[in-house]
Amino acid sequence: MQTPVLQRRALLRALLAGGAAAGVGAMALRPATAAACTGNGQRVVSIGGAVTEIAAALNAMCRIVATDTTSLYPRAVFDLPRVGYMRALAAEGIVALNPSLVLVSDRSGPEAVLRQIKDAGVDLRLIPDDPHIEAIAAKIIAVGEALDLKAQATALATAVDDDIAALRAQVAGLKSRPRVLFLLSVARAQLMAGGADTAADAMIKLAGGVNAVNVRGFKPISAESALDVAPDAVLMMHQTLDAAGGIDAVLALPALASSPAARNRRLIAMEGTYLLGLGPRVAHAGRDLAAALHPEAALSALPERAWALKG
Amino acid sequence: MAVVISTSPAPGMIRERAPLMLLALLAVLLVSIVLAIGSGASWLSPGRVIAVLFDAVGLNIAPVELRDQAVVLGIRLPRVIQGIMVGAGLALSGALMQGLFRNPLADPGLIGISSGAALMAAAAIVMGAPVILWLALPKAVMPFVLPVAAFAGGLVATLLIHQLARRDGETEIATMLLAGVAVAAICMAGIGYLSFLSDDRQLRDITFWTLGSLGGSSWRSVLATAIFLLPVLAAAPLLANTLNALILGEREAGHLGINVERHKKLIIAVSALAVGASVAASGIIGFVGLVVPHLARLMLGADHRYVLPGAALLGAALMLVCDLVARVVVAPAELPIGVVMSALGGPFFLWMLRQRRALTMS
Fold first, then answer.
1. Rounded distance, CA A194 to CA B185, Å?
2. How far apart are CA A73 and CA A64, in angstroms?
3. Which ranges of A3-110 would DSSP assign to H, the alpha helix?
């Protein structure tokens, strides 16, 4: 949780840095607040965490009239009504908001509801939303086109891709490839690990780690097989770490107690939407994760970006 | 058997009241229909709703906006009709099952229809896409895979249980009950394994599907449901006397000149069709099939000539009211209807129970 004062200080810092940075033009370091928003009369319902984050990064937050329960960043989304979980949408509720545009992650549903929204004459755009780093630029361009902010979207996509490339270049030079175990939950001492085709897997690779488990999707792993996994580091979301009782409680679990991660007390916790959002903040999240995974290396910071400010 | 009889209060009084009660239930259903069509997340004045409805039958009394039309004709009306059919179908099947099994806890889930349907629906959610790819079927069949699979699953499970319970050409009701419990357990194991295989997105789909929803009802799904629900609505009046006779016992019913075996099969078949179609269209909506028949008996007595139509009317009305609450209270989002159903229906049922006790004690 950040206090308003801290937030303002961060904004101020960003604005000052923005004056100096040439970067990607005027939009680069403007914070994603309503004040800096370019409205065009569109009323947008934005569904999907990354989709909303991109719209905000394109300074279109003020056009958004509602989001879904997976949209948790930036903070302005908490002032907006929510249309429910992205896989369980309701047609009439969305149509009732009288939107001119509905942006939906292509992971949303049910399909019958999406069809009903289209049949009501609402412009509904499916945004490709695969859990891969390479898919982010296309996601940004698709949102930009729908919002009629093509130039800004191209600039944003280029900036994000540049940051990703800069991070990858640094990571490629690192020697160590720690084996990382991502834990979605550890409730009742049952470990739920993130395998291939998850946002967690993409982030681990981006940060120069190796996924310690060899499964697809999020799968429960038994305590015994976790012993064999013997990860060098454990990665979690803040939310689940707190619920599990903190670093020491998790590393003391029988499944992890004898692992190198527990020996070296290497449990990395990051905010959920930041770590797994796969939106414009991906490179910064990847850089933070890389720094935590490779404490021996001195990674240089990525350029400060307005869309990657805390808050 | 004894329990069924004991849920009917002071018989004489009820019998005189029953036809009036049925009329009252019909009125309740009509009011629910008007409310359900007239309200929702988007506020439309009654005038605009009426204009759209008249426009749909070719009478243009006022200019109609596309969006109003989409809301009333594209979203609400199919949903309301679906709700009536599913509510009536589930309640009627429940009443038939309780009468047939002479067991107050019998419901459509008991003879495996729901669990078979749920297993196949989960399979469709998790493995539907690759199977379609493998069979090289066009992508357009995707929306049909889940309902067809669920329907087939319900039917196959019912047939299997029925087969298991047959001996010397007769269906043993007690065996069927137990076989139903066992098959349901096997299906649950299958669903558990499928949720293990699924990715988190499929898992959420399975969860939401098992909570039930009338959202996404379309004219196409209304038509598909109607085809399979009409037989149960048509057969129910024919079965009322059979069920009344069955209260005495199977052999006694046979002595009364009823072809018990044939009617048993008919009851099982129409229930399987009705429940399979309901589950395929709207997921698993509990409570209706189990409790509405009891409510109907509390209001109308034990005579199935009243209980069956009463259960159908009450099931439909309850479904509409709960769906209305589900889509309005957290707008623009929606609650799963099962949550509302149990939250509203449970206390109502308890209240009815207390009422009846007061009635029989006085």
1. 30
2. 13
3. 4-20, 49-57, 91-96
The CA-CA-CA angle for residues A256, A259, A264, to 5°, reads 110
Quickly state the pLDDT bin for A123 (edges 50, 70, 90). Answer: very high
Q: Which residues in chain B (168-187) have CB-CB distances under 8 A to chain A? A: none
Domain residue limits at B277: 2-361
Arithmetic mean of pLDDT, A216-245? 89
- Regarding beta strands A210-211 and A179-185, do their DSSP bridges make them parallel or antiparallel, or are they unpaired? parallel
What is the number of domains present in chain B?
1
What DSSP string describes B197-223?
HS-HHHHHHHHHHHH---TT--HHHHH
Q: What angle do CA B181, B182, B186 make, to 5 degrees?
A: 120
Cα dist. A162→A157, A202, A301, B247 in Å?
A: 8, 17, 13, 78
**Cβ of residue B196 closer than 8 Å to a chain A Cβ:** yes
DSSP code for A88: S
Query: Which pTM was predicted?
Result: 0.80
Same fold, A4-167 and A179-278: yes
Task: State how far Cα A241 lies from the chain centre.
Answer: 18
Give the burial string for A158-178 (b: 16+ CB within 10 Å, else e).
ebbbebbeebbebbeebeeeb
Per-residue pLDDT of chain B (362 residues; tens, 9 = 90+): 334 444 445 555 666 788 999 999 999 999 999 999 998 888 888 888 999 998 888 888 888 888 888 889 989 999 999 999 999 999 999 999 888 888 777 777 767 788 898 899 899 888 887 887 788 877 777 667 888 888 889 889 988 988 888 888 777 888 888 888 899 899 989 999 998 888 777 887 888 788 888 987 888 889 888 888 887 788 887 899 899 998 888 888 888 888 888 888 888 888 888 888 888 888 888 888 888 999 999 889 889 999 999 999 999 999 999 999 998 998 888 888 888 988 888 888 888 788 777 655 44
The domain over range A4-167 is classified in CATH as 3.40.50.1980: yes
Contact A178, A204 (CB under 8 A): no
- CB contact set of A114 (below 8 Å; sequence gap of 6+): A89, A104, A108, A124, A126
**Tens of pLDDT, residues B5-24:** 444 455 556 667 889 999 99
Give the closest of B75, B204, B221 to A92, CB-based.
B75
CA distance to partner chain B, nearest, from residue A305 (Å): 31
Cβ A232 vs Cβ A263: under 8 Å: no
| CA neighbor of B335 nearest in space, from B211, B200, B194 | B211
ipTM above 0.85? no
Nearest CA-CA distance, residue B184 and chain A, Å: 25
Chain A closest CA to B267's CA: distance in Å?
Answer: 32
CATH topology of domain A179-278: Rossmann fold (3.40.50)
What tokens were used for B77? 């009306």
pLDDT in tens, B74-103: 899 999 999 999 999 999 999 998 888 887
Which CATH number belongs to the domain containing residue B329 in this structure?
1.10.3470.10
Q: Which residue of A has its CA nearest to B217?
A: A112
Q: Which residues of A touch B143 (CB under 8 A)?
A: 111-112
Which residue, B292, B344, B322, is CA-closest to B79? B322
Residue of B340, B349, B313 whose CA lies nearest to B84: B313
**CA distance linking residue A265 with residue A147, whole number of Å:** 46
> Residue B227 and residue B274: Cα distance in Å, rounded?
9
User: Domain map of chain A by residue range?
Assistant: 4-167, 179-278
